[in-house]
Amino acid sequence: MNEKQKLGSYGERIAVAFLMGKGYRIIKLNYRCRAGEIDVIALKDEFLVFCEVKTRRGSSCGRPAAAVTRDKLLHIEKASKHFMAYSNWSKYQPRVDVIEIIMGAEPAINHIISVTE
Amino acid sequence: MISKINTATLTGLESDIVTVETCLTNQLPGISITGLASQTIQESRERVRVAIAASGFKFPNKKVTINLAPAWSRKEGSHFDLPMAIGILAASGEMKEQQYADYAFIGELSLDGSINPVAGALPLVIGLRDVGMKKIILPKGNAEEASIVRDVTLYAADSLKQSIGLLQGAESTPYKSCTEYRYGSPDGINGLYEDVVGQESAKRAITIGVAGGHGLFMMGFPGSGKTMLAQRIPSIMPELTYEEMLEATKVYSVAGELSNKRPMITQRPFRTPHHTISAAALLGGGGIPKPGEISLAHHGVLFLDEFPEFSRQVLEMLRQPLEERKINIARAAHKVTFPSNIMLVAASNPCKCGFYGDDRHQCTCTPAQLNHYRSKISGPILDRIDLQIEIPPVRYKELLEEDGIPGKSSASMREAVNKARKLQRERYINEGISLNSELNAAQLRKYCPLDTYCKALLREGIEKLGLSARAFSKVVKVARTIADIDEAASIRTQHIAEAMRYRSLDKYYRNF
Q1: DSSP state of B75
Q2: Which of B151, B167, B183 lies at the terminal end of a domain, its last residue?
Q3: Nearest-CA residue of chain A relative to B32?
Q4: Which single residue of B19, B26, B136, B234 could bond B69 by disulfide (Cβ 3.0 to 4.6 Å)?
Q5: Which residue of chain B has the CA closest to A91?
Q6: Measured between beta carbons, which residues in chain B are less than 8 angstroms from residue A96?
Q7: Assembly ipTM
Q8: Considering only the top CATH level, what class is A3-112?
Q9: CATH (domain of B382)
Q10: What confidence tens digit (pLDDT) does each residue in B73-123 have?
Q11: Which pTM value belongs to this model?
Q12: How many angstroms away from the CA of A1 is the closest CA of chain B?
C-alpha cells in the first residue's frame, strides 16, 4: 500500500468513527461495482447515505470537496442505484454526502449533507 | 403524493391554462422539470429552492419531479416560480388540497422569498378568468394592472410566506383598486390643433385620415410643422372603447411596460420611433418574441418622422402588418401573432438637406443624393399610404395672425371625425369592419357605387396621374370618407376630385 492509499484509508477510518459518533449505522465500506465505487454506505433515520470521503494533508491543492467533480458524482449516483437495486432498500430515502478531512495536529472534519442537485 | 396547482402560460396575447403537477419520490434529491419549459423556467429551480428555505420552510429531502401540463405546449415566463414553490410545499404536506385547489397562482420569486411583478399579468389573469378560475394570487406589483378585469377575485401577495399563510386560513382582503381610471376621451396632452398656425389643408387631410383610418404621408420643408401636426392627431381621435383599451393594455402588459403607477392605457397610443430603430424593435421579435412599436401603437398612431432615413429593410417589412393589421412573428418551432391596427403617419423632407424646391433657401444636394433619398420612399410603400400631402412653409401673415381668421380647433375636427365614424359604424354593422380604409374589393363595389361623372373623372385621373389599381381603390375609399364628413349618402365628383389631390406625390416620385 503506498502513501496515498494509506492516507485515504486513514481518512476513511476517521470518517467512519465520525459518522458512528453521530448515530449513523454503517452498512458497507468500499462498495465496488462496474458502475463505480462508494467509500461508505450508512443509515440514519429514514436516510440511506452514500458517502464520499476525501482526505488531504493541507488545503494547498484546494479544498478536498472540490475534488468531487460532476463525473465522480455521476459514478456515485450510478453505483448507488446499483446498490439499491440488489437489495431491498426502497423504503429509505437515498442521499449523497461528502466528508472532507484535512489532516493536521487535529484532523478537521467537514460533513456536507446532500450534494446532489 | 402529487399536488396540482393552477397557473397559465402566454403565447402572444393569448393565455392558456397550465397545471403544475409536483411529485416527491425516493430518489437522489434534485429538481427536474418537464413540459417544454423554457430556460427561464429551468432557472426557477434555483430560485424556488432558495426562496422556500428563505421563507422558513423545509425543502423536502426527496427527488422533486415537476410536470407542466399539457406537456406538448411550450411554457414561457418567470411567473411559474410561485406556482412551483406552492406545488412543492403542497406535495410535502404543508397544505391540504382543499386549501389551494380553488386558486390560481402567478409570480416570480426573489431569493429572499418575496414576490416580484411579472410581464403579461393582465392577459394571464384574463385567460384564467375565462376558464373559470375565480381566485388568483398574484404579485402586488401587478395588482393595479389586473384590477381592471371583471368577475375575478385577486389577492395581492408580497411574499411566498404570506401566500402560504393566506391559503392556511389567515385573514386577507381581496385587492380592490382605489383609483378610478378614466379612459377614452383624449386629454390633449400632446397639444391641440389650435396651437398650429395656418396649415388648414393639412388639418383637412388629417381629419379625413382619422375619420376613415387612412394612412398619411407628409412632405415638407424643415420647420414647416410636420411633427407638430402629427403629435396632435391623438387629440382628434375618437374615444377608446373598453375592448380597445383592454387590447392595448394587454400589449403593454406583455411588453413589460406597465407598473402600479401606470397600470393601463387610458389614451390612444402615439409612438414615434427614431429612424435608427431595428426591425425587431419596430415590428416585434427578439429571442422571446415581444411586441414591437407597431403593436405598441395598436389602436393609436405610429409616426415615422424622417421616413427616408429608416432602413430600407425595415420599411419593406412594414407592408404585411399594414395590410393585415396584425404581425406574425415566426420562430423555428412556433408562431406568435401580435395585433397592429394602427394609423400610419410618415413625414419626410423633399431631400436630404431639406430645401429642394424652396424658393427661400438653396438646396445643397447632389443629383445622386437626391436620387438616393427619393428612392427610399419606394413606389410600393408610397402606394400603400392612402393620403399624401405637401406641407408648405407658413407665411408670415399667418404666423403673426394678421389675417384674423382663427384656425380649425381640435374640437371641431374631432366633431367631424365622430360624425363620419358613426356613419361608417352603422353602414358596416354586419360586415365585421368599422372603417372605410378596411374595405375589401367586394365591399368596395357594394358600398361605393360610382355614377358616370365620377367614373369619367377617375378615368382622367388614372391616365393623367398614372394611378395603379391599388391607388385607384384607395382614391375611392378616401372619397367615401370625404363624403361621410360631408354627410352625403353617395360619392359625388367633388369628393373624387379632392381624393385625387391626395395622390399628388405618386407621379412626383415616379417621374423623378
Answers
A1: B
A2: B167
A3: A117
A4: B19
A5: B26
A6: 28
A7: 0.82
A8: alpha beta
A9: 3.40.50.300
A10: 999 999 999 999 999 999 999 889 989 999 999 999 999 999 999 999 999
A11: 0.85
A12: 34
